[in-house]
Amino acid sequence: MIQHVPLLIDGEFRQSQSLQWIDVTNPADNSVIAKLPCATEDEIEEAIESAAAAFQTWKEVPVPERARLMLSYQHLLKTHHDELAELLSSETGKIFADAKGDVWRGIEVVEQAANISSLMMGETVENVATNIDTYSMIQPLGVCSGITPFNFPAMIPLWMFPMAIAAGNTFVLKPSDQVPLTAMRLAELFIEAGAPKDVLQIVHGQKEQVDYLLKHPTIRTVSFVGSVPVARHIYQTGTHHLKRVQAFAGAKNHMVVMPDANKAQVINNLVGSSVGAAGQRCMAISVAVLVDGAKEWISDLKEALAKVHPGAWDDTEAGYGPLISPQAKNRVLGLIEEGKAQGAVCELDGSHCEVAGYPDGNWVGPTLFSGVSPEMSIYQEEIFGPVLICVEVDSLEEAIELVNNNPYGNGTSIFTACGAAARKYQHEIQVGQVGINVPIPVPLPFFSFTGWRGSFYGDLHAYGKQAIRFYTETKTVTARWFEDDIPTGPNLTIHLR
């Protein structure tokens, strides 16, 4: 029996009255596993009104109590870790190891949300003038919202609503229409952990439903992760309607390989970071920048990539799963063909990949290009598939110029044994997240996820201290009390020196 995915409104999991429903499919065979409603305007309005009413009481809950809720929630997430990963695999196609990593990185953010008491501390200065003190306090904003992508259905929702709710806000979540099941299970566990029934609401849909959230006057913030065109639309529409917006967009992440780097480590890390999760992550390494003698390593890289194959979620020998949809697969295949036509050398072609037992899956095998130049479409566009391209340069300076001329600035890494080269790279590169002998430098949640330039629209980033600033406002109080007003009497006299 095919599941009809419910909405979560006012603490109740309820079936939508929508007349428009979307198929949710398993990418390994494209079978329909659920039906998803596009919520009606009345349903979204009810969710927002419920969240707004809940905010009036939730904001008054003591901060330590909010922290204890997050402690309970992270415990339940850990208890159900493998169950969540299996559910996540069914709708994304991710192999079990990737799915478990998705869930775990989300749990780490919830653990950071449990540290909310210290994160909400303000500042005080005594005697800014004679007998006058000034202090600041951090207060929640109201109803916040999040719009999440298909590729990390556990981690990215957990980037958003736990931090916002721990800070005293309420939240309306709109998960990806391609992978809604994981988000619904996260919500069930959140309520089981003791969350008040209406601090989290979940609505479903597509652009029409997103636009309703973006324009609604009650919504104070919008958090988004997804493609560049949609991120621009989210940012422009949200800010036009006077909302605080953080919109994480596309990427073209480069790994610079110096000739003095450890060759075995380079190849191993390039393989994992380029085709892991089928390349469907905004921090994937999609460009290897081979400096000087490192150009000779392409044949070794090809040999290593050729040993990797995709497979179903429970195939322990598989390196990654399918792409999310037939449309995503066709887009990747089209870019591979463009690369060949534009003169790049296709060292390894995964276009005709097949997986036994899953003839209808969205499979693309590991693909490697050499001889790529910056004007080619496979360099200019985010492929979002298991495709690695190699660009050859003669010096570190050329590598830095290449990366800085790219419009994106999400993540980058350098592999080298030279500290001076590493320091020069980290200092001069115009990218928000830099790895030194680390291929995918996603920071742990006590730091913030800090993409730059065309990879991010907004001012304050996800999780870490910046998330608290994003989900709160600072109030500054200047206070003066007059000693002449101190009450006196038989039992009230205060002796002052």
State the secondary-structure class: alpha/beta
Give average pLDDT, whole number: 95
Distance between the termini: 81 Å
Shape call = globular
InterPro entries: Ald_DH/histidinol_DH, Ald_DH_C, Ald_DH_CS_CYS, Ald_DH_N, Aldehyde_DH_dom, MeMal-semiAld_DH
Protein name: methylmalonate-semialdehyde dehydrogenase (CoA acylating)
Keywords: NAD, Oxidoreductase
Domain Aldehyde dehydrogenase: 14-477
Would you summarize the structure shown here?
With 497 residues, the chain is α/β, with parallel strands linked by helices.
What is the strand and helix layout of this fold?
Layout: E1 3-4, E2 7-9, E3 12-14, E4 21-26, E5 31-37, H1 41-58, H2 63-79, H3 81-92, H4 96-113, H5 116-119, E6 124-129, E7 132-140, E8 143-147, H6 155-166, E9 170-174, H7 181-192, E10 200-202, H8 207-215, E11 219-225, H9 228-240, E12 244-248, E13 253-257, H10 263-275, E14 285-291, H11 298-306, H12 326-341, E15 345-348, E16 367-370, H13 377-380, E17 387-393, H14 396-405, E18 408-409, E19 411-415, H15 419-428, E20 433-436, E21 452-453, E22 456-457, H16 464-470, E23 472-480
Parallel strand pairs: 1-5, 8-9, 8-11, 9-10, 11-12, 13-14, 13-19, 14-17, 16-17, 19-20
Antiparallel strand pairs: 2-3, 4-5, 6-7, 7-23, 12-22, 15-16, 18-21
Helix pairs in contact: 2-4, 3-4, 3-7, 4-6, 10-11
